[in-house]
Amino acid sequence: MKKKLPITKNKDVVVSWVYTWSKQQDMSIHEQRIVLRILEACQAELKGVKLKDYAGTKRKFEHGLWDVDAQMHVSDVIFSGRDYNEIIAALDSLAGRFFTYEDDEEWWKCGFISNPKYKKRTGIITFRVSNDLWDVFTKFAKGYREFELNKALALPTGYSLRFYM
């Protein structure tokens, strides 16, 4: 039996740079959802919109001198069940992945996230996103596409998410 994508009244449309998904062949679904939440925050910043409140905890993305400090609830990434080992594994794996950028003027490489933390019993995860990566996610010039955030977050596997993107 085929699963249908959820039909939602929320039509939040997010713009993603195609490179973000084309180069991440082996990310788990939870890693991809973390990246989607980062993209959602970038888009909210561009539109001047505050992020929604989930599970009584506001998601925070605060700009520092070198990084953007991020905080969110585990339920923003894991929707069914509460196997916190999965979120720890996703944070650990995503912290070990790198994003490479190159154009006519520069080349650089940085991690997707750094300093991941999980506060047990509260369900709060925190990490940092490099300002360089944040700038790429918000200031891309070409090679982008729009997608519905709720549908992308509801997809069950990394493969289906890459196909949707």
3D structure, described in words:
By secondary structure, the chain is an alpha+beta fold. It has a single domain, classed as Winged helix-like DNA-binding domain superfamily/Winged helix DNA-binding domain (Arc Repressor Mutant, subunit A, Orthogonal Bundle). The protein is 35% helix and 29% strand. It has 6 helices and 10 strands; from the N terminus they run E-H-H-E-E-E-E-H-E-E-E-E-H-E-H-H. The protein has helices at 18-22, 29-47, 84-95, 131-138, 149-154, 158-164; strands spanning 13-17, 53-54, 57-58, 60-63, 67-73, 98-102, 107-111, 114-119, 124-130, 144-148. The model is unreliable at 1-11 (pLDDT under 50).
Characteristic key phrases:
4-stranded antiparallel β-sheet, 165 residues, DNA-directed DNA polymerase activity, Arc Repressor Mutant, subunit A, two-stranded antiparallel sheet, 10 strands, 6 helices, single chain, Initiator_Rep_WH1, Replication initiation protein, alpha+beta, 35% helix
